[in-house]
Automatic annotation (TrEMBL):
It comes from the Bacteria. Keywords: Membrane, Transmembrane, Transmembrane helix. The chain crosses the membrane at residues 32-53, 74-98, 104-129, 136-155, 161-177, 189-208, 220-238, 275-295, 301-321, 369-390. This is Conjugal transfer protein TraL.
């Protein structure tokens, strides 16, 4: 590990420890020692991954940073670069000013948001139980979750950013801060289109009277505010709105891209257009089913039922949609783990989602399959069925 990587990891780990202290989780000296040791282990694991270079970095991220470096940094924001949305590109612009390894900076950014994601998960679990042990378990299990470690530190992807804001949005809305929650959801969406897998939970929150219709106005306002720096630099405002539509147009023809979705069972589909349309229809049907169940049982929409709805959406939508990639169950990985920390009897759910996600990660990162993706698809089908059963059970209970 080089000196830059070591320095950044130490700074982020120290910030994580300070965050735990500020949250009131380190009440005794032994708590500090134990948490510091666990953080050290979590960051040693990440340090071992920092030097790995993937094709995504070589082909895309490094080229984008180089473009900004050669064209004046933030002055080049008016030019369309890559297919990531602008908030993430702001960071790449910033990195272009430093004469150090942009690979390390890119990974350090994702690792910093690993900590934010762990903290947001800890706060969410705190709504369901008062046990400090379980809340700390949520924090550290997220940090050690294989897909979280691999996604940022090894792969250099940024799924921890949009998921951190999505989990934080859910927590804030359930905690009685709907405006802040809606703003966080908009930030999540501004970073990555995959936020749409969990975004419909705000309709359930509306039904549960956790948010009001006026709060939905904050979504476009927050999104546009995040686009303004690039617009002032010359980026067309309309393009910031249509960028995700352009991304969907480049999804590709394959029904499945190393994903443990239902389309892993479809090996020999020649005409993919009707199958693709069927998958989109099925995903919308699942979303509508969640809304209908929430509405018909609105007097019993407890915090547990809402969490169940969030898991069904985050897991079920990418499971049914076509053209999904291996990383698209990232939010489901984290939410099922949060449920298991709050209610350990549901530990099977994150185990199943990890199996499904990791098979896809292995396939991409090693260019070969460890097991047929059908195994992962079967695991996620079981997880989705369990999440639906959990949600239905919660909707039969009276709110406490």
């Amino acid at each position: 590990m080089d000196a830059l990587s070591l320095s950044l990891l130490i700074i982020i780990a120290a910030a994580a420890l300070a965050l735990l202290y500020a949250s009131g989780m380190l009440r005794r000296p032994e708590h500090v020692v134990i948490c510091a040791a666990l953080l050290a282990l979590a960051f040693v694991l990440r340090g071992l991954c920092m030097g790995h270079v993937t094709d995504d970095y070589r082909t895309f991220l490094s080229q984008w940073v180089a473009f900004y470096r050669n064209n004046g940094g933030f002055a080049a924001l008016g030019t369309s670069v890559g297919n990531y949305n602008l908030p993430y590109l702001y960071f790449l612009c910033l990195f272009s000013y430093f004469n150090v390894s942009d690979l390390v900076l890119i990974k350090a950014l994702s690792i910093a948001f690993d900590v934010v994601l762990a903290w947001a998960s800890m706060k969410l679990v705190g709504l369901y139980c008062s046990s400090n042990a379980r809340r700390l378990a949520a924090f550290f299990l997220v940090l050690f979750l294989p897909t979280v470690v691999l996604n940022g530190a090894y792969w250099g992807q940024c799924d921890s950013i949009y998921t951190a804001f999505a989990v934080l949005a859910l927590y804030l809305a359930l905690d009685g801060r709907p405006a802040a929650g809606m703003a966080c959801m908009a930030v999540s969406f501004a970073f990555k289109l995959q936020a749409v897998f969990i975004m419909p939970i705000f309709v359930v929150l509306l039904i549960a009277k956790k948010v009001k219709l006026r709060h939905f106005l904050l979504f476009p306002l927050t999104y546009v505010a995040l686009m303004l720096p690039a617009v002032f630099a010359g980026y067309p405002l309309l393009s910031t709105i249509t960028l995700y539509f352009d991304q969907m147009g480049t999804a590709g023809d394959a029904l499945n891209y190393n994903s443990s979705s239902v389309w892993a069972f479809a090996d020999n589909v020649r005409n993919t257009s009707p199958a693709s349309a069927l998958g989109v229809l099925a995903a919308f049907a699942l979303m509508l089913l969640v809304f209908v169940l929430a509405w018909t049982h609105r007097s019993r929409l407890s915090l547990w039922a809402i969490l169940g709805c969030a898991i069904v959406l985050a897991l079920g939508i990418p499971y049914l949609l076509p053209h999904m990639h291996e990383r698209y169950f990232f939010a489901a990985d984290v939410l099922t783990l949060a449920l298991a920390c709050a209610a350990p009897e549901y530990l099977l759910l994150p185990a199943l989602t990890q199996l499904g996600s990791l098979l896809g990660y292995y396939a991409y990162l090693n260019w070969r399959f460890l097991l047929p993706m059908k195994y992962g698809a079967a695991a996620l089908a079981l997880a989705l069925a369990a999440a639906l059963a959990f949600t239905a059970m919660q909707l039969q209970r009276r709110k406490k």
